[in-house]
Records
---
Amino acid sequence: MAVERSYAEINARIKAGKVVVITAEEAVDLVRSKGVARAAREVDVVTTGTFSPMCSSGVYFNFGHSKPRVRADKIWLNNVPCYGAIAAVDGFLGATALPENDPANSSHPGEFRYGGGHVIHELVGRQKIKLRATGYGTDCYPAREVETWVTIDDLNEAVLFNPRNAYQNYNVAVNLGNRTIYTYMGILKPNLGNAHYSTSGQLSPLLKDPWFRTIGIGTRIFLGGGVGYVAWNGTQHFPSVSPGPVEGSIFAAGGTLTVIGDLKQMRPEWLVGASFLGYGATLFVGLGIPIPILNEEIMYYASLPDDKLYAPVVDYFTAYPQREPGNLGLVSYAELKSGKITVNGKEVPTAPLSSYPKAVVIAKTLKQWITEGGFLLAEPVELLPSPAAGIMGKTLVIRGAKE
Amino acid sequence: MPTKRIVLRFPASVADRPIIYYLVKDYGLIVNILKANINPHKEGTMIMELAGDEWEQGLEYLRSCGIEVQPLSEEITRNEKHCTSCGSCTAICPSGALYIERPSMQVAFDGEKCIVCQLCVKACPVRAMEVKF
């Protein structure tokens, strides 16, 4: 009889020290050798992981009231501007924020050596951060300016809140133009000089649950080296699954997550500031999701190997910036990881932007946490919109200044 | 007679021309090639020692061929603590000094192959590649 398993049963096995957890990489081998049915019977949980640059990340924080009080409508952490129009001493620091007076791309390509992501890395690393805030002064909040040094432990709250993380799949970026371009996908050499991709393929969380059967609001996850939760679907969550070019393969893309977690229990090695030449600053985020093996179908998708998972090749010289539809074909993660793919008949060297070795460590860490009994699986309060919801992305129509 | 260590970077268009022959024949230079990575129809690099009275003119000749010439006075090191093994340096490294070990996908750095072009220093998102003088 086909296996059926509940969250409660899995958690009971975790508490009893009997749970069987494997990483998605191990699931590939297990299903290959024993088949899906047997693997589903033997395994309770499959763990995934990814360590990638993820824009749409940030931290909201509350820094407590000064004496006299300030109604901080402008806030800077290490000279990087934060959003202050939340409440008197609440702020939000975005991963891509640049320091005041950063030259940006005025001398192209700009270096973007420091930004919000770097502040987050230093904050979680318990380094001293310069806090400056200004307000216009009110009867209840008379101070106009405060300036001080804080560590994360001085803050009431510091919460990592990332509106769009864990992209299910991503474009393989190439350059069909005749000059080097500097993008959020790295340096792309002209005339198909290189191809950059950015997911962990067979370890990538949302590629292993492409129909969103298990990942939903409240799912407990590995986030930034600590424990976090799925808060909502991510922004631009347009999941879809279609058959890939070879039998049994899939092209799943478009799913994203909003995630949240207490920054105070995270670790700097899993939240690392990043600088993309000519593009900007951002944050590498380490994120891992446990997939409960509720049935054979979930095991089947969780065990799909790199050669069954496909990504689209997209030109970043013209097609991407001009939002032209279509792509230059699909390639598998096995091809991408081999070091070369063929695009328009030309052999192109590939490189990842997403650290596979770190993804492996995340999946193994999560496996260890669950096996040791300290990390229970959370049944989602609600599942997220699946490909069946058919959500399509909206684009921005430029209508000009007049209504 | 001073000996200069220099790095040459060849565009694909001149990779199949006998540049070094002309350095010796026309400028009487003594060349000692330390590293070379030249392939037909591809960008190439070469590190060499150069000595002789007319080395200024020799360098001028190289530049006139579209070859980039820079002194070899620096070396690149990797800050292992900072490197996340993301891999974004590996496809732009022209000499193959930065490469991915398979199947672990760890990024490896072979300093022997490095030609100090410094592309990795700019490309590394976490600034793990450093120039040492």
---
Amino acid sequence: MNIFDRMMSLDRRWVFLSLAIVCVVTYLWDFSVPITISNEVKSIYDRFDSLQEGDMIYMSVDYDPNALAELHPTTYALAEMCFRKKVKIIFGTLSNLGQGMVDQVIRDIADSVSHDATYNGVFYKGREIVNGVDYVFLGYKPYPAMVIQAMGLDFRVPFPTDFYGTILDSIPIMKGTKNFDQCKMVIDMAAGNVAEMWITYGHGNYGVPLALAVTGVMGADMYPYLGSGQIFGLAAGLLGSAQIEKLCNNPGRAMDGMRIQLFAHILIIFFIVMGNVGFLATRNRNKMR
Amino acid sequence: MKRQLPLMLVFVFGFAMIIQYFIPHQASEWVNAFFMDWMMIIGVFALALGIWSLTKVSWDKVKYKKSNWQYAIVTLAGLFLMIFFGFDYFRHFSTPVGSNNYMYVKFYQHIVIPIQSTMFSLLAFFIASAAYRAFRARSLLATLLLIAALVIMLRFNPLLGPLQPIMEDFSVWLLNVPNLAAKRAIVIGVGLGMVATALKVILGIERAYLGKD
């Protein structure tokens, strides 16, 4: 076996080991990576930035813990931005393990918002986030397509009570709030086909202004909806989350994780190039024979 | 009658829901909301079926000492412990108060989250290995796929220096032109297929869902 044969048939354990080393070293080595902002992420931020005190949005946290590395940072950054600006949030989840995700977001953000902070040059005084006044968490119901359609009619159809068992009509921010008509927008953080259900049933049936934050592998699939105007913004993968964090001036895990992803990608490209050099050299050698 | 009744119900309700969609009236909305409730209630029965199925399969595995039967014990223990804590030691059945149960939260935060995150993270290693072996310039189409993958991975790479904006523009073109065209064609094709299948079910041409009997 010559060098070219070896280049194209490397034992996969070497690939695993190299990737593990790159991930650990770049995790421990603290440096920042410049983040370039794309138009589709900027449009999400611009829409959030234009929200006024007292406005209301619907935030759908449709992912399980397996996608939290990519999507949690977006949820954190946007939810904190809303709470700082006193924008009210209706949280919901169409993912069966999403309840824990929302619960975690609310607890952590409530803690963060209780401290003074300055984002993008604007000072925000720390305050207490109150359930029912600043936000409501509707909880989880199975069968996303049906739940989205039912919420479009009235939130009370699928969710007569909120996650904590309180009747919706007795919750201050739900008084006068019937359906998506009272929400300035819907943002869906999704790690599955729920995103497409929001486009079909949420935007299609009720015309809700919709933005998506999806996992990296789903990103390319969502571009047609961006081009057709069915969604006004798209943040895909860890990169999308890092861009949101940068725009919100609220660096977190996504911006931190970008250096790991950057070098992991470089390593994968190195292996792909190496394999192809070996492959082409072997093919030429065989042709010459 | 065993076959005719379901076919009739599907026909009537299928057409009723299609007609309802095109009538923007309060009564029509009420009908829609009413059936939404019904669909969710019926759907919940699938959950009970799932729990029964998982319990039976796991129990049989343990009972007959099938291969890896030890894992079935862990599955059953996890299932019933989460139900037990989720109902707050069987004290709360009608409210989701159990979701705040100390043990339920701890199990979720310290077992479910790390397990799911770890499983998903392992994909990175398999994807790296698969990319190394699969992305080979064997033909023109394979080469195009390879180039597209490299451009997308490198699009925001700051180490490329002056080449980075070019790569970014190229990746935007890739996503907005060839990707968009292909994806739209697929979406429209799938949509038409769904309409055709739905009509076949409503009209009773497609009857596979009724089973063999």
---
Amino acid sequence: MLGQIKYAVKYVLGLDRAGNSYTVYPDDTFLVSYPKSGNTWVRFLLANLIYPNESVGFSNINSLLPAPGVLSKRFLKSLPRPRIMKSHEPFDVRFRKVIYLVRDPRDVAVSEYHFDQKKRYIEPDVTLEQFVKRFIAGETSSYGSWWEHAASWIAARHGNPAFLLVRYEDLLADAVGETAKIAEFLGIAASRERLQAAVERSSADRMRKLEKQQADEWTGTKNTRQEIPFVRAAKSGGWKESLPAHCVEEIEIAWAPLMNFLGYQLQTQELDSKTIPAWVRTGQPL
Amino acid sequence: MARIGVKKHLIAGFKRGLGLHTPGKSLLIQPDDIFLVSFPKSGNTWTRFLLANLRFPDEPATWANIDRLIPDPTGTTKREFDRMPRPRIIKSHECFDPRYPRVINIVRDPRDVVVSQYHYHRKIKKIADDSPIETFVKRFLAGETCPHGSWGQNVVTWLATSEGSPCYLMLRYEDMIADTPRELRKVVSFLGFNTTEKQIAQAVERSSAERMRKMEKEQPDKHGLMKGSRKDLNFVRAAGSGGWRKDLPMPMVEKIEAAWGPIMRHLGYELVTQVPSEARDYEALGIFTGTPH
């Protein structure tokens, strides 16, 4: 009962956590991804790009490029429009303009495993093998499985001019070039120097340094195991060393068609040909 | 003006304190919840009556009690949700939501859906009586006639994510019309209910279009779907399939099939026009490839 009164008072003052019930405006842009797919990195990239005079860090990222769910409705309303916000939601019809960031699920699995250890979401003795099984079933995240997430967005929006699909791997390979694409999508006329500066200010090294200084000032790292870093490898293909072969196979069997579409080369040889779309077998380009 | 706004806001806050608000998207979902999901005007209300009559054989479903028997997060209060016997069967029009533990998804031919929604919007005075169906179809295709996305988006987010999952049952409205007991048997086995053939027959009987029409006449203002709407138009309309063949002008049929032909084909809805070659190829997107996930 006391909790309900507290909630009522907070609601009246607009201080209740927005959760899922905040107002989305038609001119909002959302940076959407499954967790552990490079969302925080791109948040830094965008914040540095949009606010070249701010010192972007973990302590202020939530006000520069907000995560609406954990903020108050009053704060979200006070933001200047058009707003750019981050989200991990699977398809949400209210989001009109979306940058969809996607990452190889084999790397996502490894990254999420470490993150969940850091956050104490899983017991320290849970093995990667055990984790991957639950990861495939979509049990490790409240946002659904990697497949559900990517399929819901791609099926509903791919090809729409207000939907920009960005692969984490492409960002790693050419951060300036990919950031330029995002800037164009956002209608930001950015010079090469400005793009380069944003990329440098968001480098893994710099983010690691900031994490050391500000770990207690950000919800992602506060009260977590400090011996496990949030900014970890920041690379692609790490699964080849750290993911057991049978885990790789399980992921590929589950999600081959979508991985194929996204250009993530499969390692498993004897996948049933029916699971691979015809155009892949005929070699038609992406 | 501002004062009225403040007063309304305070009342809303007070209601929240008592749990008398409708939870909407912040509904607390229980692991044994069952969601009855569909795009609007796809037979959701009929199926709601069917499921209510299956689940609660001692309390025949009516327009007055349906929001309590099969609650709606936007029409039933939080307090009622908290007091419901479990497992709860909850109505929804939302696109894919990974939090829904078990889903019964009703899908209907979009050519019939658009005609049905057009008439419903005339009934609830959302559009003028003489508003042309052509204008409506255009808005329907753009997903502007309701807050749950376009038909294609709504349906494809469910199919692309959930087809093949043991926690997902897709039923076509057309199959339910053709053989209701057969489709209800699928529901019963999906939910693991101990329902007898006699109870299924009773649920079908109690949810017949005739009975629902009769109750609509007797309780026209008992439900939010009809409150304050035009009484000269019925909520329970044709309750059939294929009406589009006479009600929907051919150029409109062509537009719908051009937009959603691949999804319609996937669902087994026969197309009558040529789908343009640039229509979205879902298989190329890695979707509808028949892999269970």
---
Amino acid sequence: MDQPVVQGVSFDVRPAEVFALVGPSGCGKTTTLRAIAGFERNCGGEVRLGDRVLQDATRFVGPEKRGIGLVFQDYALFPHLSALGNVMFGIRHLPRRHRRQAAVEALWMVGLMDFEKRMPHDLSGGQQQRVALARAVAAGPSVILLDEPFSNLDPDLRYATCNEIQQLAHRGGLALVLVTHDQQEALSTADRLAVMNEGRIIQTGKPQAVYDEPETAFVAHFLGHTNLINVKSNGRFGTCELGSLELNQPAQGRVCVSLRPEQISMQPAPSAGSIPVGTVTARQFKGHDITFRVRLAHREFVVQTEHEAAFGVGDQVCLVPRQAAMVVDRQE
Amino acid sequence: MWVPAVICGVGVLAPVVCLVADAAQAEPRQIWQTVWRWRNLELIWNTLALGVAVLGMTTFIAIPVAWLTTRSDLPFKRLFTVALILPLAVPGYLIAYTLLSISGQYGAAFVLTGVPLPRIDGFLGAMVALSLYQLPYLLLNLRATLLDLDCGLEEIAQSLGHRPWHAFFTVVLPQLRPALYAGWLLVALHVINDFGVVSLMGYPTLSFALYQKLEVLDGVGASWVALILLVAAGSLIGIEWWLLRRLRLYRVGTAVPAVAGVVALGIWRWPAMVFLLFLFVGSLFVPLATICYWATQADYGVLWLQLQTALMHSVGVGLPAAVAAVALAAPIAYLARRYSSKRSLFLERFAFVGYAVPPLAFALGLVVATLAFARPLYQTVFILVYAYSLHFLAEAVAPLRAALFRASPRVEEAARSLGHGQLSTLVRVTLPLLRPGLVAAVSLVLLSCIKELPLTLVLAPPDFETLSTQVWKNTEDIRYAEAAPFAILILVVASVSVFVLLRIERSP
């Protein structure tokens, strides 16, 4: 246990913003979340909320005094309290006679009218999550942390939850930090995200920016699929198995580049010429697009095309980049 | 938080250490004479023989019964199961009482019909009573395993060409081994530690001899027999631990069990029914009928007062003991959840120590310790409360752990993040979640205290009669009618504890 689980993690979240911490399981996301909430006492570093220092070398504000809401992965509803009781439990800032009304309103907000008297074990997983969310919001925090909010939900509910989270932030002015290992949900829900691996943040930015311009091979690989290609570069161009490539930034010598499957186009192999030719080894029809695997010069490339593409397994094809390849840091 | 665990450890071990010190104090010649006696060898032999006989008998009954009630299409499975598990809560001395009070020349059978049933006592009586009493422990273990055994394996064995019988012996039986070992340990421990049955049956085992030596105030002799008992109990636990540790290495990850298929018995259902019916009549119907018969024969003039006093004594000592046991068990259960499995196992072993130490040896150790260090407490109810609470600690841990298991630590953290401090969280979240567990734990320990015999006999103040001592003493004096009302109260207590146990098991 000498090696810290999380190290050198630093980020800031603004009001009315959804911030996602995304990374493979065991990368330290949840530990980071628990540290913000105040459940990890012995860690160095600083946690601030506005001008208030919540935790540094000398100070430690207990979780109950931080005013930071938390929605656990297993929701952690109080099994002995009704849905309404759960939500009322956290409302301490209002005079007693207004609490009930506030809790009812919070349940309305998450679409659970008429569920006030239900006990947690009578609620479905999605409903439990809503109660947990209402409970966190009703306590009146300025920040809410969500641990894997999508992991126990079916696809329809995921979409609804994603919407709800965005509304809470953008309309309610709350800062939301969510932790997930699902890159798809992170990309579609967050205003900004940070990719974590092995206890460190690798890259932070807007989802589109991080997706389009990954700085390292890990980020490129973790957010969506990609082809990592070794290139002998000379300025803005390089050569590799596919032939000549344009690079997004000048580089010299051997570098690693990322070309996403949708950034490569597939063409029938010309009858003659010097362009490298590959063979289609697999075709995976996915509805609105098709994923091909192409064997070319002893390695496999993944290519994604629109659903009309008429290639089949065994066809000879050549691969042409649609845009400049991203130079990425090969090292983790 | 570690304090309660240490209290338990010291509380149980200190009397044992006093016992060892006391035993070692005697002169070497005297020790030599007390220990190397033909009589001692006989006692050990008797105990061993009884243990083996009870283990054999319970195993031969429990395996077919467990299989019949889980896997076959036998009618009234549920009824048979309940009927055969019910004796679990009935103390051994009560079963011995029914066997004795029905047979022999003073028995109910002779009084009613004039035909004397051969008196069931001695080795045979002890074996039958202990087997009936211990059967549920083995049965419950085996049933639990059979119910979530992967039946797929049995079917695979059959598909590979093994006959059903063969498949049972080669596939199912080996998988029952952990359940058998765990059950055998309990049964063997209970046989070694048993006092009620062997004393009434007049079959001299180690613990019976220990009591006799105490009666004649042979301190050194009693101490040495107690030491032999301790070694026997300790080695049993050691053997079981070793067997289970070896088994665990071979265990494969939990498979998703195939739904248990029901085996059609065909013509065999009739012998099976007769077998179970015989067991049912023997273990439930006859004892109940006997007790009821004797209860009608009792003269309630004097008994009425005795009943009230005994009940008051039993509850008066049992209740504080139960509260103390739960107060000690709660932190242990709480710590066991918080810490890693290895440390929590260690903690729970602590709670088990008081249960495993033979009660008579524990009682003798306490007598020695109070005489040496706390003379004013000698023969007071305080010592009895102390002994009860440590002896039944393990019974309090289980329901508390079950209740805590349902309350994940996340729930407490959720309360903290909603602005509630540690105290508020404890009062408003943790305790309400624990309440059913606390109630169950207190009632279980209280009921066990009421049924307890050997600790009560040795440690209670003079003339302090409880329900259990009244049953025992009246039976010993062949006053079966006078014992019956007390026995009925004990039976009521026993059925309530079964009810509580079932409630705990059913809660998710």
